[in-house]
Amino acid sequence: MKSLIKHSYLLLILLFLSPLLLWAQGPLFTAQFHGQPLKKVLKEIEHHFGVYFSFNDKLLDNKEVSIAFDEATLEKSLVQALAGSDLEYEVLDEQFIVIRKRVIQKINIQGIVSDTEHNTLPYTTIESLVTNKYAVSDADGKFSVSVPANDTLLIKFLGFEDLAIPVTDLDTSKPLDIALRVKKQSLPELVYETQLDSITSLIDQQSRGKNVKNAGIGNLPTSNQENIFYALKLLPGVSTTGLSSALEVRGGETDQNLTLIDKYPMYQLDHYFGLQSVVNPDITNSATLYPGGYDCLFGARVSSILDIGLKNPTLHHTEGNVGVSLLGYKAYLSTPIIRGKLAVLGTFRKYHGAIERLLYDRDLQSGESKEFAEGEESISIHNQSVKPDINYHDANAKVIYQINKDHSLSFSYLYSQDNYFSSFEIPRPLRDPPRRNGGTPPQPKVNSDTREWSNNAMSLEWNSKYKKVNSSVYFTYSDNTRRNDKIFYRRDTTEQNRLKKQTTFSYQKMQDISFHSDQQIFLKNGRLDVGGIYTYYSVVKDLKPNGFLMREVDSLTHSNSVGLYTQYNFLLNKLSLTVGSRLWYYQPSGKSYLAPRIQGSMPVGNSNLFSLKFSAGRYYQFIRELSDELTYDSYWIISDDVNIPVITSNHFIGGGTFKWLNHAFDVEAYYKQSTGEMSDLTFRNPVYFKKYVGDGESYGIDLMYEYNARRWYFYASYGHNQYNKQYTPKEAEKKRTDILQLASMYKRKRWKAGFTWVIKNTSYDFNELLNVPSTPNQELPKTTDIEPYEVPLYHRLDFSSEYHFRIGKRMKGEIVLTIYDLYNQQNTEERQVTQISPEVTNNYEYVLTDISQLGITPNLSFNLIF
Predict the structure, then answer these.
(1) Given this model, what pLDDT does residue 190 score?
(2) What's the pLDDT tens digit per position in 800-812?
């Protein structure tokens, strides 16, 4: 504890000193060009900011510009340089930028934007509401844009009223003269500067496309580049077992969260206790977490939805990267097959763990032993820790066929494989004694745990756009296969209490097959969403020896369900509302389940600095995963709504946001009430099975602060959750979680560095659920001495630094140094309890084995990006 306090003080000192570095915002661009070739201007911008432009030289031939840059950022410089031309830019990553010709649509519209007094308005944005493309008028207010015939143009300039014009109302045979009305007076120089800020924000959203809530933490440097999934685990209210990718959101169990990757569900999300996720960050495009209160588009879980989108293959150019590190290696390639029509991408990663195997062996670390006795009862507890041996690999593939601008077909696939092994000898005090008369000593008794798990998942999607309808029809398939072999020893009362070898074997395969249809219908005053889904679940199990649940309760091997949903999105003055409902028919129970939902948000005042938000709704879940905390066995079971109830949950969420300059504050309070909850203790308690089905409630608060400047980023969040399950008036489970998470990053030219720090405290309270010897002797152990639920305080500090440099004209090198667990905490990932004594005895013997994460682990990686 003293070590934790010491390191905490050091961390706080660093945090207080960090604002002193805010002055270092990097050089801005100031220059003047008169009738200079655009190619020369871009070269100057490229050299000044240390970025790399990729373009076809013919596109820039005969293009000259006259322009003045005054302390302009990179984004503003590009906007000004390309304004009024038929060129646009796309940021592929922080340093690679593609300059290309705008995609020509059906109708070409030219014009000039001015105010009502005929003063031209430079750098006005002209947005397409159908394609989400945009154009920017030049310094004289002139613009040119190509849009579909059914489009609507939205003309925006700071200080003036927005103007929306349907293309069908325009005479496109001659240049347009568009006049905007003044909304408020501002100094022209300030107006133009802020207008450029607005444009660069728009471009950043379109080119990067990372819709991560609190997106700044998605750019933290890690060995996985910009790992959005890593950032999601730092959001308030998101907890994990260690830093595992299996999310626990606002008190919900891990099985109550649905993760979608390109719309297919995933049932195993992490490698090596969360050292990496199965989601490859090289091709991750967006990630959005809905921590409850989500709308009718989503179902199937009662806690949260994590929606991750992968990049589409590049239709017009080839890109990729290869990388090698002290922990593994990887490769990524995206290339067009038919330029502009058909493209494919693929990735592969494999863990070799060279540095980890060099630093850490697999030898058992013995801890203290405790013995307690009272009359005829005694308890022996032996503590030890061990690090498992793990290897894994994963692969992704994606194909897209762009039939035309309104129709596309895509296929996405993921495969991952993990292997885990740990073993340890039974401590000497518990082994069989030597034989008499000089007999040979008994052979060591070794407990072992071998696990394998794999994912196969895919989606096939057809996207279409019509005049007032967006349509998505898709098929998804996902399976998760797990195999577990264990060897352990237990006293055998029929053979003079010697240890007897016992083995267990488990195999299960979970399959999820779904067909979806999602339709967006654009109406005059809002948008109507309608859709349907068919889902087939299948669970195949082979357990030896067979357990109580599988013999007596868990009888279903498959199920079918059909769902329909509708919701309406509209504005009511300043209030933005989404109202709808989802209806299921579940075949095993023969019942229908209705889930009404509502979400809303509203700005407060005219400045839009404050906004309020709320949501409420009902949610159902038809499958669940039970796990035994003592053996860490787990499997999925399908609800029949008789023995295995359907989980029902009601969510009530309210909060608000405040944004000012570079600062953002967010707060949300929530209350969730559920029925049909089951305790994981049912896994091994057949006598009291009926007692372990009951009701639950979860409540808490999430706080978040974010500072995001050009060079400096700081993030802090705190989440508090209380989760209760009540089975009978006497039997109950309670779990309390408090999480503080900090992240900071500094960027300057080709270098950036950052850290993340997490501290998590979880406490459990079991009321009359666990059987322990009853005695008035205060020296006997408490429940927490012999059960695994009191995992030690978790805290971890990670540091990462990244430097990139140019290699040739079209390639970039990247060196990343990441140090995991900087102060060598070696957090406990699992606590396994092995009962050595017979099941019926007065002399209890336990071995508590902590499966620990890695300690301080440096990882140096090199990536070649092209």
Answers:
(1) 40
(2) 888 888 887 778 8
What token pair was written down for 777? Answer: 């002797």
Phi and psi at residue 407, in whole multiples of 5°?
Answer: -135, 135
Short-list 353, 147, 340, 252, CA closest to 670? 252
Question: What's the chain's length in residues?
Answer: 866
Q: Give residue 852's pLDDT.
A: 62
176-180 and 107-115: which strand pairing? parallel
* Cα dihedral value 223, 227, 230, 232, nearest 10: 170
Closest Cα to residue 482, out of 525, 520, 511, 502?
511
User: Edge-to-edge strands of the sheet including 257-261?
Assistant: 264-266, 257-261, 304-310, 284-290
Q: How far apart are CA 329 and CA 753, in angstroms?
A: 22
Please say whether the beta carbons of 721 and 250 come within 8 A. Answer: yes
Query: What is the band of 243 on the pLDDT scale with cuts at 50, 70, 90?
Result: very low
The string over 135-160, giving b where at least 16 C-beta atoms fall within 10 Å of a residue's C-beta and e elsewhere, is bbbbbebbbbbbbbeebbbebbbbbb
Q: Which two tokens stand for residue 423?
A: 């073993």
* Residue closest to 603 by CA, chosen among 579, 578, 576, 577: 576
Q: Is the pLDDT of residue 737 over 80?
A: yes
Examine the pLDDT at 530 and tell me if it is beyond 80.
Answer: yes
Distance CA 334, CA 336 (A): 7
Range picked from 254-268, 536-550, 779-793 for highest mean pLDDT = 254-268
Instruction: Specify which residues 625 forms β-bridges with.
Output: 636
Range in 37-41, 466-470, 535-539, 605-609 the model is least confident about: 605-609
Q: Is the pLDDT of residue 360 over 70?
A: no
CA 269 to chain centre: 10
For residue 339, give the nearest of 315, 319, 320 by alpha carbon. Answer: 315
What average pLDDT does range 539-547 have in this prediction? 79
Look up residue 134 and give its amino acid. Y
Tell me: pLDDT of 284 over 70: yes
| Of 857, 794, 860, residue with least CA distance to 822 | 857
Q: Would you report the helix, strand and coil content of the chain in percent, each value rounded to 5? A: 15, 55, 30
CB distance 110 to 93 below 8 Å = no
Give the closest residue to 760 by CA, choosing from 714, 797, 713. 797
CA distance 238 to 402: 37
Predicted TM-score (pTM) of this structure: 0.71
Q: Is the pLDDT of residue 511 over 90?
A: yes
pLDDT tens for 21-44 read 333 334 578 888 888 888 888 888
Q: Which two tokens stand for residue 239?
A: 């907890």
H/E stretch holding 74 reads helix 74-82
Residue 669: CA count within 13 A, CB half-sphere: 1
Buried b (16+ CB within 10 A) or exposed e, 309-336: bbbbbbbeeebbbebebbbbebbbbbbb
How far CA 171 is from CA of 111, 137, 166, 168, 181, in Å, comes to 11, 19, 11, 8, 21
Q: 183-187, 575-579, 603-607: lowest mean pLDDT where? A: 183-187
Of residues 788 and 606, more confidence is placed in 606
CA 753 to each of CA 166, 491, 744, 818: distance values in angstroms, whole numbers, following the listed order: 47, 54, 8, 10
What is the rounded CA–CA span in Å between residue 751 and residue 704? 27
Spatial distance between the Cα atoms of 246 and 264, rounded to a whole number of angstroms: 16
The pLDDT tens digits of the residues spanning 679-710 come to 765 554 444 455 578 898 999 998 988 888 87
Nearest to 365 by CA among 840, 843, 826, 21: 826
- The first and second tokens of residue 321, run together, are 């990267």
DSSP readout, 193-205? HHHHHHHHHHHHH
Confidence (pLDDT) at 343 = 94
